[in-house]
Amino acid sequence: MTSLVAPYAMPSARGLVANHLRAGLSTGALAEQRGDWPALVEAARDLSGAAVELAALSAHELPGLTAFLDEDPWLPFRFVSVHAPTKGLEGGDRALAAALADLPPVVDTIVLHPDTLAEPEAYRALGRRAVLENMDARKSAGTTVSELEALFELLPEAGFCLDVAHVWSLDPTMALGHELLDAFRLRLTHVHVSSVTSACEHVALTAAHEALFGEVLERCVDVPWILEAV
Fold first, then answer.
1. Measured between alpha carbons, how far is residue 122 from residues 1, 176, 223 in Å?
2. Distance of CA 195 to the CA centre of its chain
3. Hey, which of 14, 135, 159, 195 would disulfide with 139, CB 3.0 to 4.6 Å?
4. Distance of alpha carbon 35 from alpha carbon 62, whole angstroms
């Protein structure tokens, strides 16, 4: 099958991220193919077969992703994550949690944004596949150790996804990244990697940010790193 998008290169060809053997792509980085799950999987595979995050960022995208996965497609990845919707949420947490719980076993983790969870305990239905991501400077929840601890009390089986760019938006020294890892390193399932603008929009990782994030990333070498922009 002919690729519908050009292959992507890892940032900083000789850098820390390029040399990480478990790096992969978030399909959320590919706006032009959004909703075309076969094309998105192919594009992610062009970058890496190690890992992928299938991003259904709007609620209307989740049924299409579910239908695609229910067809048992060939997914050439050793780690498969799904990013749960963060926009267009209308049916409530219990309905969304039930829909996410129906995703097939090929999905290893399901990433949740703490600021969207009105009823966090509903996501106990996801068991160990539930993963909480630390939020950026725009958000009112899930940005600090104490805020995340309160959620983990409600979701004791949940994992943790560290977003290094979100950390930077709150603390350019990256000390917060070490605090989050000190608290939740045993829950860590994967890492989101990118740069962000002053408006907290994800953009391709810069060499300067890769160097700045290095000490935090080096504490996470045993889990997949997902590129959120290319």
1. 41, 28, 27
2. 14
3. 135
4. 9
Q: What is the pLDDT of residues 106-128, one digit of tens each?
A: 999 999 999 999 999 999 999 99
What tokens were used for 152?
Answer: 């983990």
- Three-state SS letters, 80-134: EEEECCCECCCCCHHHHHHHHHCCCCCCCEEEECHHHCCCHHHHHHHHHHEEEEC
Domain 23-227 in CATH: superfamily? Answer: Divalent-metal-dependent TIM barrel enzymes (3.20.20.150)
pLDDT digits (tens, 9 = 90+) for 8-32: 556 654 589 999 999 999 999 998 8
Q: Tell me the angle at which helices 207-217 and 175-184 cross, rounded to the nearest 10 degrees.
A: 30
Residue 213 and residue 163: Cα distance in Å, rounded? Answer: 11
Residue recorded with tokens 């075309």 = 36
Indicate the domain borders of the chain: 23-227
Tell me the CA distances in angstroms from 91 to 42, 99, 121, 134, one per residue in order: 31, 11, 16, 24
Distance CA 174, CA 180 (A): 10
Place of tokens 């700045």: 212
Please report the pLDDT score of residue 9 as a whole number: 59
The list of the chain residues with pLDDT below 50 reads 1-6, 13
CA count, 13 A, side-chain hemisphere, 151: 30
Q: Measured between alpha carbons, how far is 40 from 27 in angstroms, rounded to an integer?
A: 6
**Cα 141 from chain centroid (whole Å):** 17
Task: Look up residue 80 and give its amino acid.
Answer: V
Taking the model in full, what pTM does it have? 0.93
